[in-house]
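Lab notebook, bench 4. The sequencing result for the construct came back, and we need a structural model before the next group meeting so we can plan mutations. Quick request posted to the team channel:

Model the 3D structure of this chain.
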Amino acid sequence: MGNADNDGYPPMESVADRRNHGVAIPPPQPFFKSLRNSLKETFFPDDPLRQFKGQPRLRRLVLGLQYVLPILEWGPRYTLEFLRADLVAGITIASLAIPQGISYAKLANLPPILGLYSSFVPPLVYAMMGSSRDLAVGTVAVASLLTASMLGKEVKASENPTLYLHLAFTATFVAGVLQACLGLLRLGFLVDFLSHATIVGFMAGAATVVCLQQLKGILGLARFTHETDVISVLRSVFSQTHESKRRPKFFWISAMAPLTTVILGSLLVYLTHAEKHGVPVIGPLKKGLNPPSGTDLAFGSPYLTTAIKTGIVTGVIALAEGIAVGRSFAMFKNYHIDGNKEMIAFGMMNIAGSCTSCYLTTGPFSRSAVNFNAGCKTAVSNIVMAIAVMFTLMFLTPLFHYTPLVVLSSIIIAAMLGLIDYEAAIHLWAVDKFDFVVCITAYVGVVFGSVEIGLVLAVAVSLLRVLLFVARPKTFVLGRIPNCNAYRNIEQYPIAKNVPGILILEIDAPIYFANAGYLRERISRWIDEEEDRLKDSGEDNLQYVILDMGAVGGIDTSGISMLEEIKKAVERRDLKLVLANPGSDVMKKLSKSKFVENLGQEWFFLTVEQAVGACNFMLHKCKVDTKKDESDEKWNNV
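Done. Here's the predicted structure in token form:
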């Protein structure tokens, strides 16, 4: 619109002239085309079909297979150098996966051999379908604890192990179907409701509970609570202190557990015959590869609802953890993983796992960190790990007979301590107090309630925050930065100056039914406060109210009604409402509702600068006309 004149006002242009650079109203679109565009923006922000456009039919088939099976894309480029790195990484994570798998299966109240089964089939499926180079697939403590907690409330593993096992397979199948459907329907954004703060608090709380649960193995307690809250666990420990002191001669084995390996622990038990003196060991493990379990899915069981609920909760948690871990390591190596493809991969490996005697798997942080630090290059490290586990299943399972349970407990505790990320909690407190509250809510809910209660509380608090953001959006008074035409929040920039006679307000959110009433009252209060300030300072009266709509991404009918009410309220005060920088969706709806016609299209401007220039021009013109009228009246009197 040009620079200001020496007296601070813009060049003398008419408001009509400014309409040549006014805000455009988008042309109307057919309903179905508009709906298609909206759905595309919601579910296909990455446009996965773009690579198929303009390609021959055979090429489209190849690209489609590569999309479903990424191994077909990077496999032809695989080199001997990659193989050397992946061999080292695969063997390294296998040495961790074998004891961890057995330990986590015990944590889930499942036969220990299932931990090995779950480290064989799912990694092979993920290696073909996953898009992460660094994710190491396997069982995780949190999902194991959730399985034990949720299924254990209905069916006790010690009383009905077969039914419990079948429900675990069913829950894994449900989790896999949920994960695959979320990926296929591109509904991955639902997992985003588990915020970073929720995950930090939930993992820390679950890690605390898991560590406390291992007191059963460390103290050698025969009976232990099935509850997961800290009070029940501690009560169970202190009510059986006499049992933990019955075998003082061999308790030193338990004390050394955190510092020993599975091999050393097994050798000690074997050489001292400690299992004959009451030290609990794993016992015999069945040799051989995964037996089929598709016929064991308990769809006809009266506890099917419990299995479905367990599958949904564990499936979502596993997705959130796996995708978060995959993205973290992808960021270090500067490559991208497709969240929806990852969901499909997780879903398919859990569906396959549920039919081959596996329970829920994902990409655990500890195992993936070892894989990353060992220098893995591709997902072949998962294949190497699976082969090592296969070799163990076929030939080495008898060696685990003498492994003391206390060793498994120490392995779990060592892994869990890394999940209590107090530094992340401190960072949340420093950056965002509300996120810290979400984190602590999840932690307290898990530790003093249950894993389900902690998760529900944390998600509820996170959703409450979203609702507060929507229902109570920020509004700011803008002022002009000296020596430039930028207008910024006067609280953030104290050097910004109010424009005489003009109040500029920025609305920092879409305007919907949930916040329309609040915005109406808040804008009225801003006007009251500005008029009071002008009255106290003796400055010119307020004449114009400019609403900066640049951050208003959308508006509904309640929002339009609110703007109509604001317009009437402003006019009752002899003021004029002006809108700056409204988006296309907002302008389309304002035009259809006749608000543009009622306000006058000449009062819509591309920028705040243009709006201020037009208002200043009108104020200057009004002053000139007033002086002329006073001069004419004085001359007439003479």
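The longest helix spans residues 304-333.
Will bring this to the meeting.
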